[in-house]
């Protein structure tokens, strides 16, 4: 039962925001495993599956899905509050590509048979998904992807390679953007396929990153046969579907959460290293704090747009730029303050939340994933400023 008598999970969207936040916060604090708070690295499925199933049992695994498909039916503003409370408590991120990416696309574009088949298996944890978008030389310029899918009878035959595929080694299904018309313009001729990772011809190779962690993978497809029924939406219209996720992704990536977390740890680190009262450090910290407050104010403006049920414009790209670059600046200061501990790949002794090198490394790709900041600036210059 929820903390408020008479409030069932399916009615949470009827609560005002502060009451909703209180309900979510109290349940997370009581239910989340203490030993998994603020993990220094992205957890694998075997590590975070107990939390996944707790959310599923509560009915809170897919808060943005409509209630008829097993979700909470939360609007965007409450989804953001829900995410903020998970992050505030230091909850590990679940294997959530099926929850936040595939599920909404299947709900919007899938057939009745696809909805009946795939959605319940995300809720049950039977299907764990990964995202097959980026390719070598086709990361930020995703529309130039070359992985092909050629129709042969009742199957598509897929050949090509995906890269930077998050936690592909934990997934048993992958959703792919593939080229189904080689003669079309690059934004056209792209389709959206659902592929069982156990299909013959698929090879997964983990990539060890700077933290010595295997969060990303390469995935190779060699004559992989995919049933025609696994095409989602219209043939050659996959690009439109992929874009449908971008606005929410950009406000998610532009959330102040990473920078706020890093700034809190910077204060703790400065106190531990004896520089908190140092005037030079104080000036740097104040500059970071002011930048964070500016980011929070800008972020709140976009949240208000979502609360009014209005679409986000191309200018939302500035959130991701500002957040990711602030995150990097704060973690650079952490390294300067940490001294000899800056070279440690594990948290500092006595405080597992102080991991200066880990935070610094995690901040490096923040300006790359979700569309590089160069791409985000191009979007703003073209669609907001009308520059040539």
Regions with little confidence, pLDDT below 50 for 5+ residues: 1-7
Number of strands: 8
Compressed to H and E, one letter per element, the order equals: HHHHHEEEEEEEEHHHHHHH
Kindly identify the CATH topology of the largest domain.
Answer: Butyryl-CoA Dehydrogenase, subunit A, domain 3
Q: What is the number of helical segments per DSSP (H or I, 4+ residues)?
A: 12
Beta-strand portion reads 5-15%
Give a short account of the largest sheet. 4 strands, mixed
Report the CATH C-level class of the largest domain. Answer: Mainly Alpha
Q: Give helix % range.
A: 40-55%
Silhouette: globular
Please identify which CATH superfamily of the largest domain we are dealing with.
Butyryl-CoA Dehydrogenase, subunit A, domain 3
CA radius of gyration is 22 Å
Please state how the strands of the largest beta sheet are arranged side by side: 1-4-5-8
The overall number of domains is 3
SS-based class:
alpha+beta
- Terminal Cα separation, in Å? 56 Å
- In CATH terms, what is the architecture of the largest domain? Up-down Bundle
What's the overall average pLDDT, rounded? Answer: 89
Write the layout of secondary structure elements.
Blueprint: H1 17-31, H2 45-58, H3 76-88, H4 97-109, H5 112-124, E1 129-132, E2 148-152, E3 155-166, E4 173-179, E5 190-196, E6 202-207, E7 216-227, E8 231-232, H6 238-243, H7 246-253, H8 257-273, H9 279-307, H10 317-338, H11 356-363, H12 373-383
Parallel strand pairs: 1-4
Antiparallel strand pairs: 2-3, 3-7, 4-5, 5-8, 6-7
Please provide a written account of the structure:
The chain has 388 residues and is an alpha+beta fold. It has three domains: 86 residues, Butyryl-Coa Dehydrogenase, subunit A, domain 1; 110 residues, Butyryl-CoA Dehydrogenase, subunit A, domain 2, CATH 2.40.110; 139 residues, Butyryl-CoA Dehydrogenase, subunit A, domain 3 (Up-down Bundle). Helices cover 44% and strands 14% of the residues. It contains twelve helices and eight strands. It has a four-stranded mixed sheet. Helix 8 packs antiparallel against helix 9, helix 9 runs antiparallel to helix 10 and helix 10 runs antiparallel to helix 12. The longest helix has 29 residues. The N and C termini lie far apart (56 Å).
């Amino acid at each position: 039962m929820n903390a408020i008598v008479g409030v069932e999970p399916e009615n949470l969207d009827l609560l005002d925001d502060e009451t909703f936040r209180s309900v979510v916060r109290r349940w997370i604090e009581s239910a989340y495993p203490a030993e998994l708070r603020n993990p220094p690295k992205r957890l694998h499925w075997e590590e975070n599956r107990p939390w996944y199933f707790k959310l599923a049992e509560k009915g809170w695994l897919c808060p943005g899905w409509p209630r008829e498909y097993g979700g909470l039916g939360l609007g965007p503003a409450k989804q953001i509050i829900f995410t903020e409370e998970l992050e505030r408590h230091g909850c590990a991120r679940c294997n959530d590509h099926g929850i936040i990416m595939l599920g909404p696309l299947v709900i919007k574009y899938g057939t009745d048979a696809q909805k009946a088949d795939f959605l319940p298996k995300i809720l049950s944890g039977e299907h764990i998904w990964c995202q097959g978008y980026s390719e070598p030389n086709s990361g930020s310029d995703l529309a130039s992807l070359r992985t092909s899918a050629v129709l042969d009878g009742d199957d598509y035959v897929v050949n090509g390679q995906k890269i930077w595929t998050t936690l592909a080694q934990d997934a048993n299904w992958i959703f792919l953007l593939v080229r189904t018309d080689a003669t079309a313009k690059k934004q056209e001729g792209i389709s959206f396929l659902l592929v069982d990772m156990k299909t013959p011809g698929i090879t997964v190779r983990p990539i060890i990153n700077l933290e010595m962690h295997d969060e990303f993978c390469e995935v190779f497809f060699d004559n992989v046969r995919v049933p025609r029924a696994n095409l989602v939406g219209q043939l050659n219209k996959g690009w439109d579907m992929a874009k449908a996720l971008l606005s929410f992704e950009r406000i998610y990536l532009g959330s102040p959460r990473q920078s706020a977390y890093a700034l809190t740890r910077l204060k703790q680190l400065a106190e531990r290293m004896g520089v908190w009262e140092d005037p030079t450090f104080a000036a740097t910290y104040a500059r970071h704090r002011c930048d964070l407050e500016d980011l929070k104010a800008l972020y709140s403006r976009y949240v208000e747009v979502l609360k009014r049920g209005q679409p986000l414009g191309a200018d939302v790209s500035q959130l991701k730029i500002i957040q990711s670059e602030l995150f990097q600046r704060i973690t650079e200061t952490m390294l300067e303050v940490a001294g000899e501990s800056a070279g440690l790949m594990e948290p500092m002794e006595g405080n597992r939340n102080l991991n200066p090198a880990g935070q610094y490394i995690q901040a490096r790709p923040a300006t790359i994933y979700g569309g590089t900041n160069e791409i985000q600036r191009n979007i703003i210059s073209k669609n907001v400023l009308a520059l040539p």
